[in-house]
Amino acid sequence: MKLIYGLLVVSIFFNLGTCSADELDEFSDEMAVEEVYDPLSGYNRAMTSFNDVLYENVMKPVASGYANVVHTEIRESISKFFHNLYFPMRLTNNLLQGKFKNSLEESERFVLNSTVGILGFFDPAKSKFEIDKHNEDFGQTLGFYGVGAGPHVVLPLFGPSNVRDTISMIPDSLLSPIDYVARKDDITILEYVAIKTVEKVNCTSQNIEKYEKLKADAIDLYPYQRDVYEQYRQEQIEE
Amino acid sequence: MFKKILLVCVSVLLTQTLSANEQKQLEEHFLSRIDNVISVVQNKELDKEKRNASIIKILTPMFDFELMAKLSLGKKYKKLSTEDKKRFVDLYVLRMKNSYSSKIDAYNDEKLEVKEILQAKKNRIALVTDLVSSKETLKIVYKFYKPKQAKKSKDTWLIYDVEILGVSILKTDKAQFREYLQTKSIQELMDTLAQKS
Asked: B179 partner at 20 to 30 Å CA-CA among A111, A235, B9, B156?
């Protein structure tokens, strides 16, 4: 009898407990959002607005005009060509992180795409041989070895970044063939700017819709872009 | 003593089998819902508005948008008046539905593959999926929970967060709402949400 009474008490207690359990508290462990260390927030906000105005008034009209004239497939090929050029950066950073299988696959992709894929304008490595690309940059390499992101920094034209990723642009540019020929004075500064502009406009023309959708989800553009960037980079480093 | 050990072993095995079955059932149910969504997306005879309405109709039982609304405000939600609570949840739900249907409507030749099923707790399962297209692969994690009491016109397991390439929709909203509310009021936040929807 005592046992039945005891079970009854326990079951009533349990039921009461489940009914009053707060859903918000149940998820509090997972939904904890860390306070972001953001000493440059004033500058970052101003630069985000500047970039957005520049995007809406210059880059978007130029990229849309470019997209109207240049066929989608040609723009995709141009983007593949630039991606193929940055192979030394991806190879080095894959190797630095001890990702030897990925390094091998990146090398296979470079050889195939530069030859069969005609200087990288096509991607037979993916379409015919199903070899995936493995994007790695020096910021990811530093993150892999435990270097923290540091304060968030919004760069003119480039957009969201942080101290670690901004510094990492220097070693990555040393591995960029375009920057290499510019350093060797094989191309003039004007030619360098022209190449970089084509790359940027081509890239923007392929991502107009993505930026519009990202903006539509933002209540306040700066913190939204900052959090999306930092979470995305963290995921890239952890992979 | 032997019987007791045997009983413990059997119950542990039984729990694991049950949990594996539950995971399998969830995966199959989820994929069948996604198939329904894809067939609507590919039905180009419907105009965009009808297509979006059909997508929302299929998605609504899968998501606990109301819980997402509450979680996005965190502790601040508890302090709101009953009226504000209702207005905020309604606005957030509308925002989520619009956001999802517009994103899914842009799908074309993609295929969704479940890569891994993670179960951190008895009532939480995460489906790690790849959205594969001819150009790229997007990693999307759907996070499900099982409410203690089944909710009316809803699935048994409900999605409370989606992570796209590591970016949690809920965490991002929580962070931006928190920052917004540091300088502005909840009324201003709700007005902005209303303007955006």
From this structure: A235
Question: Does ipTM top 0.90?
Answer: no
Q: Which residues of B touch A232 (CB under 8 A)?
A: 165-167
Residue A185: which pLDDT band, with cuts at 50, 70 and 90?
Answer: confident
Contact status of B77 with chain A (Cβ, < 8 Å): yes
Helix, strand and coil content of chain A, in percent to the nearest 5, comes to 70, 5, 25
Using one digit for the tens of pLDDT, what is the confidence trace for B57-98? 888 899 998 899 999 998 889 889 999 999 999 999 998 888
Q: What is the pLDDT of residues A122-135, one digit of tens each?
A: 999 988 998 989 99
For residue B79, give how far its alpha carbon lies from the nearest alpha carbon of chain A (Å): 13
B75 touches chain A (CB under 8 A): yes
* A63: nearest Cα among A206, A217, A211: A206
Distance from CA of B186 to the nearest CA of A (A): 13
Sign of torsion, CA B102 B105 B108 B111?
positive
Which residue is listed with tokens 């069948």? B32
The model carries a pTM of: 0.82
User: Residues with Cβ < 8 Å from B4, sequence gap 6 or more?
Assistant: none
Q: Identify whether A19 is part of a domain.
A: no
Rounded-to-integer distance, Cα A134 and Cα A222, Å = 29
CA-closest candidate to residue B161, choices B98, B81, B70: B70
Q: In whole angstroms, what is the distance from residue B138 CA to residue B15 CA?
A: 33
- Delineate the domains of chain B, giving CATH numbers in brackets: 2-196 (3.10.450.710)
Domain membership flag for residue A55 = yes
Is residue A171 one of the residues assigned to a domain?
yes
Tokens of A106: 């990146």
Q: CB distance from B19 to chain A under 8 Å?
A: no
Nearest chain A residue to B194 by CA: give it. A219
